[in-house]
Amino acid sequence: MQPFFDSVFSALFKYRPVLFEQGHIVFRSPVAIQILLAVALAATASAAWTYGRARGKTTGRERSVLFGVRCTVLALLTFALLRPTLVLSTVLPQQNYLAVLIDDSRSMQIADVDEGTRGTQASKLFLSEESEVMRDLSSRFRVRTFRFAEDANRIERGDSLSFDGGRTRIAPALERARAELASLPVAGVVVVSDGADNAQEGLSETLLSLKSAGIPVYTVGLGRERARRDLELGRVTVPRRALKGSAIMVELVLSQSGFAGKRIPVTVEDEGRILSTTDVELPADDAPATVQVNFTINDAGPRRIRFRVPVQDGELVAENNIQETVVDVSTAREKILYFEGEPRYELKFLRRAVAADSSIQLVTLQRTADKRYLRLDIDSANELVAGFPATREELFTYRALVLGSIEASYFSHDQL
Question: Which helix (H) or strand (E) element contains residue 207?
Fold first, then answer.
């Protein structure tokens, strides 16, 4: 039916609908538009007055029909005198530049397209000497090709890509292409990618900047939008520093497609040595779940900690089942000040809880009466003899501060 409607539309309006979508209509009347509209309104008013006064054998309905016909004729005549013109924009061959940005990250190695991997398809379409796409683009534009992953670099046709980048940073790649073609007429930017942008930069500001400069951005997506069967270990929240032998609790995001309800182990490793294993029930498809795992690091120094889930049968991508991070493990004994305003059982239980932890020195200051204090685990006889530290230097000798039952009015303005 669509070809039939296109034919009818072309017969009535001379051009195909697609041309009206690409262009815009302007009026090129030899007479001022205001004059034509004024004359049309005057003719309409005259017709209304004439039919309103007319009497005789005609009925009111007949006069209304005649008035409508006359108004329609006047509207068509006015529209024709306005001389509506369809304006289309076109690009002069070889007078404008086109930037083509090709994703060179590891995700382009995924083989989920008919021609093989996503990277193979991208190279065939935009880097091959036999590419019909590039031949057509080169006939109209001066094409400049870039590769991008962590950074963006200019490449030439016929060059090969490695597809081994660890990150996909689309925003800086767009900025690099714009900067290199800043002094040239740019018809647009083509981004060839699977869309797996794992960078921290947002795209909104960059796209708005390109839009304000009149530079359109076109995207060419490669690969499936969603993996049929895949398990992904996403964001892992790990402290940068930890104490040797202390317990560490880590939150990680686990998402999957095709394995809902299955129980799998999440393994934490330190240089190949297993620190802990936690069984997790997989969430519903495409619903990320936050998982908590606990482990202890017993070796000091920078440690490369690996979080891993096993590859499942039929899983499309195995590379996203692993996350690695570095934790600086210290052997220093951290000094903590615990201040209680009155005798309470909490002091005994808190000291008992950390008694076996050699990495923590819990210095206790308990007020027993006005200006009288119980001091425990201090380094010298003069430490905290006057109560809570009165100077910044004295307070900042402690790594952390725990306040028990103490009123705010106890502290001076400087202490607060």
Answer: helix 204-212
Burial of residue 312, with CB atoms counted within 10 A of its CB: 0-12 exposed, 13-18 middle, 19 or more buried: middle
Q: Quick one: DSSP state of residue 320?
A: G
* Cβ-based neighbours of 153, under 8 Å, separated by 6 or more: 146, 147
CA–CA dist 392, 397 (Å, integer): 9
3-state secondary structure of 2: helix
Per-residue pLDDT tens for 309-336?
998 887 777 778 888 888 888 877 889 9
Alpha-carbon distance 333 to 243, whole Å?
8
Which residue in 252, 242, 244, 232 sits closest to 311, CA to CA? 232
CA distance 260 to 263: 9
pLDDT digits (tens, 9 = 90+) for 21-68: 777 787 877 778 788 788 888 888 888 888 777 766 677 787 788 888
Q: What is the C-alpha separation between 375 and 265, in angstroms, rounded?
A: 47
Question: Tokens 């950074």 correspond to what residue?
Answer: 151
Distances from the Cα of 395 to the Cα of 241, 316, 338, angstroms? 22, 55, 12
Q: Are 231 and 262 in contact (CB under 8 A)?
A: no
Structure tokens, 224: 């499936």
Q: Is 210 helix (H, G, I), strand (E, B) or coil?
A: helix
Selection from 357, 397, 400, 358 nearest residue 380 by Cα: 397
Q: Which residues contact 307 (CB under 8 A, 6 or more apart)?
A: 233, 236, 250, 252, 266, 267, 268, 269, 293, 322, 323, 324, 325
Phi, psi of 302 (to 5 degrees): -65, 125
SS (H, E, C) 226-258: CCCCEEEEEEEECCCEEECCCEEEEEEEEEEEC
pLDDT tens, position by position, 375-411: 999 989 999 998 999 999 999 999 999 999 999 999 9
Structure tokens at 387: 């109560």
Which two three-digit tokens encode residue 317?
A: 């991508």
Helix (H, G, I), strand (E, B) or coil at 220: strand
Neighbours of 236 (CB within 10 A): 16
The verdict on pTM exceeding 0.85 is no
- Do residues 120 and 222 make contact, with C-beta atoms less than 8 angstroms apart? no
